Amino acid sequence: MEDDPTPPASPPTALDIVRTRSLASLVSQELEAMILSGALPAGERLNEQQLALRLGVSRGPVREAVRGLERSGLVVSVRNQGSYVRSVSAAEALEIYDLRAALTGLACARLAGTATPAQLEALGALLRRMEAAWEADAATEYYAANLDFHAALLQGGGPRGQRLYEDLGNELHLFRRRALVEPENMRESNAEHAAILAAIAAGDALAARAAGEAHIAGGKRRFQATDASQPSARQQALPAPRRRARRLA
Amino acid sequence: MEDDPTPPASPPTALDIVRTRSLASLVSQELEAMILSGALPAGERLNEQQLALRLGVSRGPVREAVRGLERSGLVVSVRNQGSYVRSVSAAEALEIYDLRAALTGLACARLAGTATPAQLEALGALLRRMEAAWEADAATEYYAANLDFHAALLQGGGPRGQRLYEDLGNELHLFRRRALVEPENMRESNAEHAAILAAIAAGDALAARAAGEAHIAGGKRRFQATDASQPSARQQALPAPRRRARRLA
DNA sequence: CAAGTGCAGGCTGTCAACAGTTTGCCGGGG
DNA sequence: CCCCGGCAAACTGTTGACAGCCTGCACTTG
Predict the structure, then answer these.
(1) A16, A28, A64: which to substitute to probe chain B, counting the most B Cβ within 10 Å?
(2) In this complex, do B68 and A63 lie within 8 Å of one another by their Cβ atoms?
(3) Count of CB atoms within 10 A of residue A206's CB?
(4) How far, in Å, CA of A30 to CA of A191, rounded?
(5) Which residues of B167-191 are buried (b: 16+ CB within 10 A; e: fewer)?
(6) Span A19-33, mean pLDDT?
(7) Contact B114, B155 (CB under 8 A)
(8) HSE-up of B46 (CA within 13 Å, CB side)?
């Protein structure tokens, strides 16, 4: 979407950012990115002072940001002890897959009844993009297109479900470094994508729902296969017992 | 830890509360209750100073609490302008029903495979409680038992889904004052409850899922019927344009 | 040598104050 | 009569500072 009836879709001016976003929201965004990128691994302790210093702000906005992240499930806090990047257990990861499957199925079903030709064409384009990426063996490109495909799917389902799906996907990143889509899986995964699109295009809500659910279930299966996912009986609730900065002398 | 590995389910001591909960979390809890009870209606502006004064704390904890509520969808904030209790449009309310249906179906399906006799008995007891409430024409009692029944259902599904369901239920309260369950609806609703329990007891995951979804879909239908739900084309994004405290003189 | 105790340091929880922005009101001009 | 610029109040955004708690080390004691 280059330009629109709304203001000329300008790349958000620096001035606009300052005028519309508070420091707390920016810090929240930054922390979320750091967590999802792995710069702050699961179990890591969040030192407010350190983060504030590093981001060049006061502790207030940092605390507000952490509260938000706590609500969204990326962080857990203990009074007088600190906040930690949440670690997701294997059981929780599997449940999250189930939830995403239900959400995806719902979105696909609705999309089967409401999809416009433009939407169908956009989905088809993403499908071809993934196919091309698979043939070129470009894993990261496939990964990006895959993300876009799912986003487009969920967007057709409704705004609330979309946000839920994104949040759950973020949480999934907290189960260790997730295994990226393996090459041999790309083909299987994309075949499922095609099935989803076909059902939507046919206007068959039930089939679309089943295909959407089956796709995420397949992802869950592939996830279980690659990641042995029986590390220890249960992951500890508070992984990093507060690593203290070592005194110099 | 007075005398046991797991202290005898003591009602949380005042000291424990002080020791484990921060002011921010308590304020968050309080604000949430005020919003859900209708004391702070949808669209209402949240004045930080006023709330802080009223709750006897500083603005810091209030701000942190509001950030959490913002993430959970109960509040929307605009920089330099304030925070408002979110108003949910009719379209959003309907989507939320769909999401809850999917979540409930998922939980029922899983429960059909894992339910213990104790869980089945507990669900049965709640069912009878609702029936008794219906015969006694005790709407509030029915309402409470209904809440418990659904909570028990979702509890069997998994902790993450349960929290999601609760959050969505809370959001639903923001669509005006929701109409309580009408007397004639109680019987229909409870029949659906019985169908759910029967399917779970039979261990039929597919039927349980369908029954769970159908029940929420029924709720959606009843919701649409009672609440005309076409108030105006779309609800304004920022309902209360900042009512300013009137000067005295 | 093991266990218990006291102390220092760091960090969180909370508060009060300052700066910037928005809002509503009032008066002057077209 | 309507519109517009200036003004003052209120409120939010942010910061810095203080108090209390927890942690870990060192020392003492049996």
Answers:
(1) A64
(2) no
(3) 11
(4) 35
(5) bbbbbbbbbbeeeebeeebbeebbe
(6) 92
(7) no
(8) 32
Contact (Cβ atoms closer than 8 angstroms) between residue A154 and residue A162: yes
Do the Cβ atoms of A79 and B21 come within 8 Å?
yes
Counting every residue written for chain B, the total comes to 249
Distance, CA of B36 to chain centre: 8
Q: What confidence tens digit (pLDDT) does each residue in B184-208 have?
A: 678 889 999 999 999 999 999 999 9
Give the tokens for residue B146.
Answer: 């209904």
Whether residue A110 is contained in a domain is answered as yes
**Tens-place pLDDT, residues A72-120:** 999 999 999 999 999 999 999 999 999 999 999 999 999 999 999 999 9
Structural domain count, chain B:
2
Contact A95 B19 (CB under 8 A): no
Is some CB atom of chain A closer than 8 A to the CB atom of B205?
no
A97 and A66 in a common domain: no
Q: Does A71 touch chain B (CB under 8 A)?
A: yes
pLDDT of residue B166: 93
Are B212 and B52 a contacting pair, CB within 8 Å?
A: no
**Which of A62, A85, A108 is a domain's end point?**
A85
In the three-class reduction of DSSP (H, G, I as helix; E, B as strand; rest coil), residue A18 is classed as: helix
Structural domain that includes position A29: 17-85
